[in-house]
Every structure is written in structure tokens, then in C-alpha cells.
Amino acid sequence: MSDSLYELLAPYLNQPPSSTTAPTTTDQVTTKYLTRLSTLSLSSLTSQEAQSLAQSSQSTVLSLQSLSSRSNAATVASSDHYASLQETIPFVAEEAHRLQHDIPKLDEAAAAFSTTYSRSTENEMLDRRKRALLMERNADRLSDLLELPTLLSSAISSAAAQGQGSSNVANYATALDLYSHIKRLHLLYSDSSLINSVYAQTESAMQDLTWHLISSLCASNIKLAAGMRTVGWLRRVAPELDATDHRMQDREGLLGYLFLVCRLSTLVTTLSALEPLRQLADQETETRLQKASAMPKGTTRNGNAWQGGQQTERYLKKYIEIFREQSFSIVSMYKSIFPSAADSSLVEEVQLPFKSLELKSSHASPGNISSSDRSDTAPSALATFPSHLTDLLFGTLAQYLPNVLDKTSRESLLTQVLYCAGSLGRLGSDFSLMLAMLSPETGERSDDSDDDQDKADEDWVEVMKKHRELAGRLEALASGAGSGKGADKGGNLRIKS
């Protein structure tokens, strides 16, 4: 039906007023419209169809106008691009040809880069980059590691400035913990130059710490607890001092010797504070010697020849008192800090009398100690130190005691020396019998030296009797038997002469 209508209307579609191309039957819009016309009545075709077409045409025109206004810019841009398309297409073709020519070179460069910087091969640049990345990742750890010597030096300085105290103990403990940590790192990473540099700075700081610890052993008011802590710290800081030499009988190594040397230095320093009194005593000694030298040979010395000695008595009293306190403190502290050394010194002290009498001791039998060991082995520090202290005391007594001629003063000084001997005797170093070796008038020229020696022996015997009597009374009172066994009717202790 639509084809018949198209054939009927075809002559009218190509008339001159129409400038458009005639539609064909293959057009779906045309076919659809012709099918619609075949369904309309004649009256509809003559009255309504023209109006419907006019409305459709007006609607289409409005839609075209709206589309034109909306798509004006895009249409203009498309037109411009289309105009430049003739120049762009040859340029793209040329660049594509160049890219095609350069692709083999790019492939060769990529292959060379992959071969050069492959992880399976060694490359200096990659190694530097890896080290740089590793350093960046561990920057915080490296910073903490570099701060360790500074922290250690700060802890040591704080400990040295604060002296003996709880905070000082904490600072020393912190310093030793830091040193242990750095030493452990050095053992684990001994090939690292950074660790070696930090360890070298740490060793320098630990030398300062060792010096401070040794200086603290020379303190005048050091206590047993502080001394034990200091020795314990020295064992950690300087383990070579704690090493035992085969030539030493002392099992505490050089540390025990160092402790005694420091305390002896403190004793000498404390005694040097008596220098003003010693100078006065030297003046009295010089005066006494001048009077003795001016006395004619063969002249009998009377009691009024020398009336001085008061300053010497003051000096000796202070000297003996300081010596008694410090020597007892040194020996007792040493035995508490080095108990093994104290045991070995007891064995050695037992052996010494047998050696002097050329007897064989059960402790030093030939089967136990060879002759070469006895010749190469040095005595323990504690076995020889009291004798050194005794020589120091008796050297002073021998020099200044002749200035004191007053019997009461001499007996008082000798009694004070006996108390000192008893104090050390509690620690196994009694030297009371050595008082008999003191010369009565050392350095004084006289013809009646034998009488003076006899007088001095009598004084020494009398002082010993009084001292033992007083010691016996004190022991009896302490045991609650002040009037019991061993006491006479007057309550005095009986002493056999």
C-alpha cells in the first residue's frame, strides 16, 4: 500500500519549488508516514493533515534552532579542527615513523640498563644507593649510637661532681650499663668503622671513669658500702686489675694492692695535716740535740737538762690517734671487701714463723709448693701491709719520742700506742711487743746509754703491765665477772710477772 501511494505521489515530490532530494521507499521515515496516510480518511487528509504537518514542521524548526544554539561552540571547534586536520595527519605520520625507527634503540638501552643494574650483578652505584637507603632507614638508630659517648661522658661527669650519694650510684650504674652495651656492640660489629670510633671514644671516657673511681678510693670519709661499690665498679671497668698473677699469693689480683695504696695515700695525706705540729716538734728536736751536743763528754745528765717535749707530745698524740683510726679502718675494710685475700694472708702469716725457724709447715710442704714457686711468688698485700704501717709509725716514734722525757707523758703515749696495737691486733696485726725495740734517746750523745736503755725497758714493762691490767679489768667487766674468778680482794686482776 505504501508503495502504491509512493508511486502516486512521486511526480509531485520533485517539482521546482522543492529544493530537497526526493525520499525513497527504503527510507523508514517515508515508509512509516505513507503507512500512516493509508489509514486516514479523506476528510482527515483534507482538513487535519496539513495542520499536523505544519505543527510538526514548526516543532522540528524549533528543535533545530535549540540544537544550533547549544552546539554552536562545538560545531565551530569541530570545524576548526577539521580545517587543521590536513596538517596534523602528516605530522602524526612523521612522528610515528620516527618512533618506529627509535624503538630498537630504546629496547637496546632498556636491555643495557637491566643488565647493568641487575641485582644479580655487582655495581658500585647500586651499592652506594643501597647504603644510602639503609642509612636513611636507620637514621634514628645511628643518631642514638652517636649519642652514646656523650651520654657516657655526662653520666661520668655527673657522678664525679656529686660525690658519694644515691644519685652518684645511679650515675655510675648508668655509665657502666652504657659501657657494657657499647662493648657488646663492638664485639658483634667489630668490622664497622663507626662502632670502632664510638668504642674508642668510650674507652677514653672509661679511663676518666677509672680515674674518678680510683680517686674516690682516696676519699678520707669513705665508708665500707661505698668502698665495696667502688671496688665492684672497678672490677667491671678495669677487669685487668682483677686478674690474678701467678707470682701473687693474693687471689684478688692488683685490685687489692690498688685499694691499699689509695688508702695509704689517704693516711699519709691526713697525717700531713699535722704539719704545723710537726714543725714545732722538729724545733724541739733541734733544741734537744743542740743541748745534748753542748753537754761536756762524761757529764752525767740530770733531770733539768731538758724540760721541753710538750709540742712533741701534742704532735704524737694526734699522730697516733689518726694512725689508729685510719689503720684499723683500712685493714678491716680490706678484709670485708676481699675476704679471699684475708684467708690467704692468714695462711701466709702462719707460715712465716715456721720459715724463720727453718721448720717445715704443713701448709707449705715441699710436695705442695716447689722451690721455684716459693722464690717467684710474691707475698700477699695484706700480709705485708701491716708491717709497712708499723714501720711508718715506729719511724715517727723513734724520731720524736726522745723529746718526751716526762714519765707520765711517755707512759701516756706508750699506752696510746698499745691501744693502737690492740686495735690492729683484733685484725691479726698486733705489734705491741715491738715497743721494746724503741731506743730511749735516739740521736742523743751520752755516756750512760746503758742506764737509759734499762730505764726505758723498765718503763716499757710497767706500761705493758698497766695496759694488761686495764685490759683485764675491762674484759672482766664486759663478761659480768668483775669480782669473780681471776680478781683479788681489791677487785684488781692478778697479773703474773
Outline the structure in words.
The chain has 497 residues and is an all-alpha fold. Helix content is 71%, strand content 0%. The chain has helices spanning 2-13, 28-37, 42-47, 49-70, 72-116, 124-137, 139-162, 166-188, 193-217, 224-237, 254-272, 275-294, 310-337, 339-356, 371-376, 381-400, 407-425, 449-478. The protein is rod-shaped.
Tally of DSSP helical segments: 18
Structural class: mainly alpha
Mean pLDDT: 76
What best-fitting shape do the alpha-carbon axes yield? Answer: rod-shaped
CA distance, first residue to last residue = 172 Å
Please report which band the strand proportion falls in: under 5%, 5-15%, 15-25%, 25-35%, 35-45% or over 45%. Answer: under 5%
The Cα radius of gyration reads 58 Å
Count of β-strands: 0
User: Major sheet: size, sense and barrel closure?
Assistant: none
What is the secondary structure topology, with strand pairs?
Elements: H1 2-13, H2 28-37, H3 42-47, H4 49-70, H5 72-116, H6 124-137, H7 139-162, H8 166-188, H9 193-217, H10 224-237, H11 254-272, H12 275-294, H13 310-337, H14 339-356, H15 371-376, H16 381-400, H17 407-425, H18 449-478
What's this, in brief?
By secondary structure, this protein is mainly alpha-helical.
List keywords for this structure.
497 residues; mainly alpha; 18 helices; 71% helix; rod-shaped; disordered C terminus
